[in-house]
Structure formats: C-alpha cells, structure tokens
Amino acid sequence: MAGKLRFMDFLDEEQRRTITMKSSSIALKFRYCSIYLIDSPGRMDFCNEVSTATRLSDGALVLVDAVEGLHIQIHAVLRQAWIEKLTPCPVLNKLDRLISELELTRMEAYTRLLRIVHEVNGIMSGYKYEKYLSDVDSRLASQFGEVGDENLEFVEDDEEDTFQPQKGNVAFVCALDGWRFRSLCT
C-alpha cells in the first residue's frame, strides 16, 4: 500500500488532496525504545503546528523533495529545529522521480542531490553565523557595562559542513517504493 495508504493523514480531505492538513502522531516500539513520530503540515500557513511539534521532539527528520528542492518552509523548519536545539537529519525523498520523470543521468542526479545538501548546509551555517554575531554583540555590550557576560556561548564549529552523506547524517529515500539508504562511512 506504499504511496496509496496515507496512514498519518486521517482526515477525508487529507486523503482526497494527498496533503497533510493537521498534525498527527504515532508511537512505535523498537526494542526497548519508544519512537514518537509527528507528521506536521509542511506549508507556511502551518508554522505554529511545526513549532509545537519541535517542542515535543528530541530530533527532526526534515523531508526535502529531491525534484522540487528546498522551499521556504524547509528554512522555517530548520530554523525552528535550531532554536529548539534539535538535531535535524535531512531526508532527501522521491529519488525515483529524478530518473523516472526528469530522466537525469547518474552524474546529474548526484549533482542535484549534492546541491540540495549544500543548500541545507548554507541555511544551517547562516544560523550559526547569526548566533555568533549575536554573541559578539552581547560581549561588546558587556564591555560597556550594559549586560553581563556569564552564559555567553560562542559557536566554535570548525567542521566544514554540518550535513555530509559520508558522516551518515543525510538519508536518501523513496517512500513510494519503500527503500532508503545512507552512507555508513564515518
């Protein structure tokens, strides 16, 4: 039933339009762990639901359509994950469409996926830089006695990119056909 049954989209209108309109959750048991999945709408007019879902979560799988690429909502989801100090994992979905619809060569598909990962890294880098500038401003203000400097956190991240397939922190999937992979080279 992959691609046909939309288990988390339980409203009739969601099934008919094949879009998520209301957040829903499910609990899965895996060995000794409970995993709670929260499916929230991905469009801008549902930012409050995404915000609430991130506050209830320990991590975030951020689905990115490999054909359509990054939309403004992905920026909002990554920012919310950054604010809530979650560890997001980009999940590039619908890889099959790169071949079946766009008829990309292997190298073209690779380049497109690499560009998407690079764009996600650019977004996260911007948040790190924004935090760094905020901390510098706070530190400079404290030199003039305006605010205290106890609790300042400088982001000292010398890693090249946050997300790299070779780190195993990016997943590639085709939910319709039920397959996925990630690099295990670490």
TrEMBL record:
InterPro entries: P-loop_NTPase, T_Tr_GTP-bd_dom. GO terms for molecular function: GTP binding; GTPase activity; ribosome binding. GO terms for cellular component: cytosol; ribonucleoprotein complex. Transmembrane segments: none annotated. Pfam families: GTP_EFTU. SUPFAM superfamilies: P-loop containing nucleoside triphosphate hydrolases. Residues 1-186 form the Tr-type G domain. GO terms for biological process: cytosolic ribosome assembly. This is Tr-type G domain-containing protein. It comes from Linum tenue. The lineage of its organism: Eukaryota, Viridiplantae, Streptophyta, Embryophyta, Tracheophyta.
